[in-house]
Predict the structure.
Amino acid sequence: MDLATGSVTAYEALARFPALPGVPVDEVFRLARREGCGHELEMLAVNRALERGLHRPAGTLLSLNLSPSALCRPDLLDRLPRDLDGTQVEITEHELVDDRPTFMASLAALRRRGARIAVDDVGEGYAGLQQVMAVGPDVLKVDRALVTGVQHQPALAALLEAIVRFAARTGAQVCAEGIEEAEELAVLADLDVAHGQGWFIGRPGPGFAAASPASRRVCERAMARAVAVGDERDPRDLVPALMRVSSATCLSELARALTHIAPAVGADGVELSYLDATGSFVEAVLDTATVFKGVRYYLADLPLTRRVLADDVAAQVVLGDAAADPGESEWMRADGVGSLLMVPVRSRGEVVGLFECHLRRPTPWRRSQIRAARTVAALAGPVLDNLLRTSPPGRGS
């Protein structure tokens, strides 16, 4: 199922052996391999699936599982249809081994026939990203071990988010397997996982069923959240905080709006300062009855801050780092700040101020936090510049 739209995009063909009740499917294939007819059984299953797949809904893919060893057999490959448009071939991650040149040539042949390539069970085994990248899959199918309980395990969510970013950079999509709960599906949709499958979406059956209404509703709600203006109740949502900043009509309002920014950026505190016209100091914008009663930071004492403003670059200072600016470290230690992130604030092509984020602990800033801080600075710049022009320092807010 497409987790953005809730529509069915593919059906995976699963082997079943009614004449062998109680015997696991994997065991049947293992016994066939032991008897020397494993590849024949694979091809029988694939051809049966292709026959059944002719009746699938228009516009959907048929996904087939083939072992790399079978794909390395030219005689077996020749028994597949010449036209594989609308077909997806899944290869298990931990089976990406042996005779690589023949294997890669087979994948290229499948692609020329129109097939898509998926790597199955990503995260269940270990083939290494190098092998996955060598295959250049169209789809990364994430094993259910990384999906089950993701709503309760931030580490799993972070890992899935990393896989999604990796896939996007390599031109692939992610499909999460084993989705059995609405909460799992909601988290996956919010993480921009492209596709999902599992019993909550639809159980295996003889026909080509639609996705369950409950799973479609989860996807619809996830998309509604994404296109909404912002969730005022979620302190991590940057959108409503930025809207407060953009709608500020005076410096006091701007200062109050900034109090909502810190949790969205993942900081313990933030501060916006304007750059004096002479370039000698920056002064904080505070929520006061009159303008600029915050502490002035003289740039002569803070060479790193001066460089951030002069060169228009972001910089961080972590207390205790041997390379930290002594001037910055001194006031950080006095104010109980363990880590500082500074981003220049621009308007009309000029630097007009400084946006700072603080952490109590001496922790390096993550790239996602730096990107969020840059977003805030980009929006706050024109707002600050406009308010400075209409209410310059010393004239009241």
Remarks:
- Confidence is low (pLDDT under 50) at residues 289-293.
